[in-house]
Amino acid sequence: MDTVAEIKMRLPIEQLVGQYCQLTKKGRNFVCLCPFHNDSHPSFLVSPDKGIGYCFACRSGGDIFSFYQAIEGVDFVAAVKELAERAGITLQRTSIPSVKKD
């Protein structure tokens, strides 16, 4: 298993988004006010099954890495390093990807 997949497996999207937003359960998904624009009605949907979050108002979203990059203002490599630490994964120098893998 590659590093990115292992981080995604250990750090579910709802756990990460829940650290920044107040999530409310809605069926199999969660909703919250979008952290990327001035939102008055919960328009940010988090899908644990798909491992993504998406705002239907401002059309921003993605996986844990793109969410973390947008909310923290970091690049992909920094997101991998910081999320690996949160997930309890020790990175080897050679395991840090230089380009985002989907």
Number of strands: 5
Count of separate DSSP helical elements:
4
Indicate the radius of gyration in whole angstroms: 14 Å
Q: Could you give the order of strands across the largest sheet?
A: 1-2-3-4-5
Shape: globular
Major β-sheet annotation: 5 strands, antiparallel
Helical amount among residues, as a percent range?
A: 25-40%
Question: Could you describe the 3D structure shown?
Answer:
It is a single chain. This protein is an alpha+beta fold and 102 residues long. It is 34% helix and 17% strand. The protein is built from 4 helices and 5 strands, in the order H-H-E-E-E-E-E-H-H. It has helices spanning 3-10, 13-18, 64-72, 76-87, and strands at 24-26, 29-32, 44-47, 52-55, 61-62. It has a 5-stranded antiparallel sheet with strand order 1-2-3-4-5. Helix 1 packs across helix 4 (76-87) and helix 3 packs across helix 4. The longest helix is centred in the last third of the chain and has 12 residues, at 76-87.
Keywords:
single chain; 102 residues; alpha+beta; 5-stranded antiparallel β-sheet; 4 helices; 5 strands; globular
Q: Gist?
A:
The protein has helices at residues 3-10, 13-18, 64-72, 76-87, and strands spanning 24-26, 29-32, 44-47, 52-55, 61-62.
What is the fold's blueprint, element by element?
Blueprint: H1 3-10, H2 13-18, E1 24-26, E2 29-32, E3 44-47, E4 52-55, E5 61-62, H3 64-72, H4 76-87
Antiparallel strand pairs: 1-2, 2-3, 3-4, 4-5
